[in-house]
Amino acid sequence: MPTKSLIGVIVAIVVVTALALSLSLLMPQKPAEPLKTEEMQKIGVGERIKLPEPRYEGETSVEEALARRRSIRAYSGDNLTREEVSQLLWAAQGITDLASTNRFDAVTGATRASAGGCYPLELYVVVGDVDGIDQGVYRYIPQGHELEKVRDGDIRTELADAALGQECVRDAAIDLIFVAIYERTMVRYGERGIRYVHMEAGHAAQNVYLQAVSLDLGTVVIGAFVDSEVKKIMNIGEQEDPLYIMPVGRRG
Q: What is the separation, in whole angstroms, between the first and last Cα of the chain?
């Protein structure tokens, strides 16, 4: 049988352990660390960021995407990912074949058709709610699959006002804006080049529609806006004429 002294030691250990446990429960607990999201990449005007490499295979067939294509104006307000933005921009204006020479890089293949290979469109993205990219206006650089910042801040409300108050422009996570530099095509085709530019814009916008379906996102083509206001808000060049605004977001 254990001695009285051993019993006393055991009792003391039990008491001390119980007291320590009680004190730990009474002490204020350190709050749990929040789940870390992708670190926001802040850059200045004129600086560029590299986008994730687009994927070239998906689970949605062309036929399914065509059947499911709809104009969606209601969005949930949730963020898009950098990968989703990368995929949308590539679908709209991506390069699929770049032939390099000692003098220049010639585009020999792209995700949309362009009359005479003139490529008169420029694509801008108004970033509102995207993981890892701070708010602002960016120009898409297809050759490097990069974004170049042209303006700081969230301009979605201003852009919605310029688009005759259409709320989907304000509520979308991003707004894609297609602009045309007509001279690139007209120098080769004259006045007829204008219609070729508009055809190309239609090709590019349909690519965005189908890619949005594949990503389970919503978008809509908007052509009702005040051109001069859009150009002023975005801080784009005098020769660049806006053709489309395409808000994109998670379906509401």
A: 74
CA–CA distance, 43 with 151 (Å, rounded to integer): 10
- 90: nearest Cα among 208, 227, 5: 208
Distances in Å between the Cα of 23 and the Cα atoms of 14, 30, 134 are 14, 15, 45
Going by the DSSP 8-state scheme, the letter that residue 46 receives in this structure is: T
pLDDT in tens, 197-230: 999 999 999 999 999 999 999 999 999 999 999 9
Residues near 243 by beta carbon (within 8 Å), at least 6 away in sequence: 121, 178, 179, 180, 197, 198, 201, 223
Please give the angle made by the CA atoms of 162, 94 and 62, to the nearest 5 degrees.
95
CB 59 within 8 A of CB 152: no
The alpha helices in the chain, defined as continuous H runs, are 4-26, 62-68, 82-93, 156-162, 167-171, 183-189, 193-214, 227-234
The DSSP secondary-structure symbol of 141 reads: E
Q: Indicate the pTM of the whole model.
A: 0.81
